[in-house]
Design a protein that fits this description.
Pfam families: ABC_membrane, ABC_tran. The chain is built from 21 helices and ten strands. The protein is α/β, with parallel strands linked by helices and 612 residues long.
């Protein structure tokens, strides 16, 4: 129940549609009962039970509420017979048919308007739900995505939200409509014959119990099917990203087996789910037929033997009872659908309620620039206590200086960059900006001080111009071009088919590695942050591309505080300070010349690369 309360908060902005739907459904119920007053006289005339000798004078009302329907029915018959005496049977019958048709038209019009407004409600809630999920994804820390499969995330945003819309929000139409239809129909049935109505309702709890048992089983199978769909999305995502590796190692068969294995699990769960879902309708229809036959026998006994109900009343009763079966059926089906959708709702709420581990303090400190220095003070970091990444790491980066981190893979260099960007929080110690712990700074304002260029250029399926503009959304075109020139990117951009307005494809696939990196640098240059983080920005490039990119980086780092993570040591010889790391510790630090003179780890790394 708590899960439904959480999802219903998205309904508040659209509650006007709910109230409007309730109003029209109330009118539908009123006209459902009112239609009895027009159809009963029609059938009475056809069966010959309304005769002039029976109504010598107008009936009198006793004043009891219980007798109100009997009085209205008798007075209606008296009035109809008076019209028959004055205008003839066929004329009155024709007008009664027209009025009855109009009553049914209004009744169904109000029913449609009630459903129409609920559709607006359903679509509006779905839009808000997807929007909230996307905003949540944007706010989640990097650590969340290292532990989650992207395919599963895509499945939750597409399939699971679709299931919530179709099964829970979609069923809401019937969950609101059906009770109104049931209540108005039951009132009509009780007015016609209390005894017959009570008898006919005996079998309905049996039907509801059967459907509830099926619905409980639906929830389990639906959860399995949705989880497996997340796995399928992950496999497809990996295939699209790794097509070259798959082909070169002839791994098509391996990937196909993985995909079909997961697909078979999904099919088995879906088949079980579909079978049980389809079972609900035949069971309710069978029980409804049995109910109708029992009522027909009991009602026939009341007409033929006991003479306690008129034939036209019984005929209307049967018609009304047939009208009660569809809402009962749709209500039970909706309950089953809601139970089926609970699994998807749970998966959606897992994302919406995911713990945002990077949080601000109650009253964070504003920051607009770097005044003095960045200080790493006795930093320790681990994912779990058995997997220590950094220990007692201390380093000071004065404003305007370039500090390079070098060392073997796994020494903790990239972790330092991630901690500075506050993608993760330190396990021990603190990172200070001008003496203030970054945990106490306003996160958005702090990240405005940072620029980052990574080994893998992250570009979007958009134009070159819009990719660069992301660094500063309010920049002018002249500023974008100026940033591209600093990044040595303007020359190749102007040679593209549409220049800066050329689309670069998915992940910048239409550009070379060096070109993509220079666009990434241009984006960072346009942002013009006081602190720049370069994470092996040239390690994936060929020699010529590296020369262009390195030149662009050097231009960008002028008069800027920079943390550089380098794989190719030739690119950081001009750094103000070089820190050599090994297994999370600092083993050497100094300028290039000082470290070469020490003839330690740094010199060995340089000689190894020169030998290569």
């Amino acid at each position: 129940m708590n899960e439904y309360k959480k999802i219903l908060k998205f309904a508040r902005p659209h509650q006007k549609y709910i109230f409007g739907s309730l109003f029209f459904n109330l009118l539908y119920s009123v006209f459902q009962i009112a239609s009895l007053g027009t159809i009963l006289p029609v059938l009475g005339m056809l069966f010959g039970t309304i005769k002039s000798e029976k109504f010598q004078s107008a009936p009198l009302y006793s004043g009891d509420l219980v007798d109100l329907f009997k009085y209205l029915k008798a007075y209606s018959n008296y009035y109809i017979q008076s019209l028959v005496d004055d205008y003839g049977t066929l004329n009155v019958l024709a007008w009664l048919c027209v009025i009855t048709a109009f009553m049914f038209l209004l009744r169904n019009l109000f029913r449609y308007l009630g459903s129409f407004l609920l559709i607006n409600y359903r679509v509006g809630v779905t839009k808000d739900l997807r929007g909230e999920m996307y905003r949540k994804v944007l706010s989640l820390p990097v650590s969340f995505f290292t532990e989650s499969r992207k395919g599963d995330m895509m499945s939750r945003m597409s399939n699971d939200v679709g299931e919530v819309e179709g099964n829970i929000l979609g069923s809401l139409v019937e969950l609101i409509n059906a009770p109104f239809m049931l209540i108005s129909t039951l009132i009509s049935l009780f007015l016609l014959s209390t005894e017959l109505t009570l008898f006919s309702l005996l079998v309905l709890p049996v039907m509801g119990t059967m459907i509830a048992l099926i619905g409980k089983s639906l929830k389990k199978d639906s959860h399995e099917a949705q989880n497996e769909m997340g796995t399928i999305f992950s496999i497809v995502d990996e295939t699209l990203k790794s097509s070259k590796v798959i082909k070169i190692f002839s791994a098509e068969k391996i990937m196909d087996n993985r995909f079909m294995g997961s697909m078979n699990k999904w099919i088995n769960s879906s088949i079980r789910l579909g079978r049980k879902k389809e079972l609900a309708s035949p069971i309710s229809e069978f029980l409804g037929s049995v109910t109708f036959l029992i009522i027909a026998w009991y009602g026939g006994k009341q007409i033929v033997v006991e003479h306690s109900i008129a034939p036209q009343d019984f005929l209307v009763f049967l018609g009304m009872f047939f009208q009660i079966l569809p809402p009962v059926k749709s209500l039970s089906q909706s309950i089953s659908n809601v139970q089926k959708g609970e699994a998807s709702l749970h998966r959606v709420l897992e994302i919406l309620e995911a713990d945002v581990k990077i949080e601000e303090v109650a009253e964070p400190v504003s920051i607009s620039t770097l005044e003095k220095q960045i200080e790493f003070k006795n930093i320790g970091f681990y994912y779990d206590k058995s997997n220590l990444i950094l220990k007692n790491f201390s380093l000071t980066i004065p404003k305007g200086k370039t500090v390079a981190l070098v060392g073997q893979s796994g020494s903790g260099k990239t972790t330092i960059a991630n901690l500075l960007a506050r993608f993760y929080d330190v396990s021990q110690g603190e990172i200070l900006i001008d003496g203030i712990d970054i945990k106490h700074l306003k996160l958005k304002e702090y990240r405005k001080l940072l620029g980052m260029v990574t080994q893998e250029s992250v570009l979007f399926n958009d134009t070159v111009y819009n990719n660069i503009l992301m660094g500063k959304p309010d920049a002018t075109r002249e500023e974008v071009i100026a940033a591209a020139k600093i990044a040595n990117a303007d020359s190749f951009i102007t040679n593209l088919p549409d220049g800066y307005d050329s689309n670069i494809g998915d992940d910048g696939g239409k550009l070379s590695g060096g070109q993509k990196q220079r666009v990434s640098i241009a984006r960072a240059v346009l942002k013009n942050p006081p602190i720049m983080i370069l994470d092996e920005a040239t390690s994936a490039l060929d020699t010529e591309s590296e020369r262009f990119v390195q030149d662009a980086l050097e231009k960008m780092m002028e008069n800027r505080t920079s943390l550089v993570i380098a794989h190719r040591l030739s690119t950081i010889q001009k750094a103000d300070w070089i820190v050599v790391m090994e297994k999370g510790d600092i083993v050497e630090q100094g300028t290039h010349q000082e470290l070469m003179t020490q003839k330690g780890t740094y010199q060995k790394l340089v000689e190894l690369q020169n030998f290569e």
